Amino acid sequence: MVHNDNKKYALKVLVLTVSSTRSIENDETGRKLESLFKNDGYAVSRKICADDESEILKLIFCNYENDIFVINGGTGASRKDVTVQAIEKIAEKEIRGFGELFRERSGGILPYISNASLFIRGKKELFCIPGSPDAAEIAYEIIMGMMNHLYTELNKES
Q: How far is CA 71 from the centre of its chain?
């Protein structure tokens, strides 16, 4: 399959950490993601919210000027983990390959408990990833490999 993936857009990225225990000061995963995107020249903002569906959706819609949403935390098996369920409520499409690739690259059995996912809403890309710093690096590499191409696809004229 041949695609022109060389185009890099000036995309706006929101890194949203979903956690009941983290703050801006101790959010290692959010800080790492913010730094990685900034180092690649993207405009990045970072927020934190509780493990609460309405809070997650409120922050998405209050920051809807962003093109890419990287939501870390709340993707596991705990009853408190509601990130994916919240995003599913507003998504138009799920791209399952992202989660499959994330789990494959993570190695071992435990990543298969994670519900790492990619959702589309309009022209917005919403990546849901685990909240660990190691997951951030793996997800970042995958996101960087697809986000500009996906942006092209989502913004094609019909």
A: 4
The CATH architecture one would assign to domain 12-154 is: 3-Layer(aba) Sandwich (3.40)
**H-state helical runs in the chain:** 28-39, 53-62, 83-90, 96-106, 133-154
Local confidence pLDDT in tens for the 158 residues of the chain? 445 556 899 999 999 999 999 999 999 999 999 999 999 999 999 999 999 999 999 999 999 999 999 999 999 889 999 999 999 999 999 999 999 999 999 998 888 888 999 999 999 999 999 999 999 999 999 999 999 999 999 998 75
Q: Tell me the domain boundaries of the chain.
A: 12-154
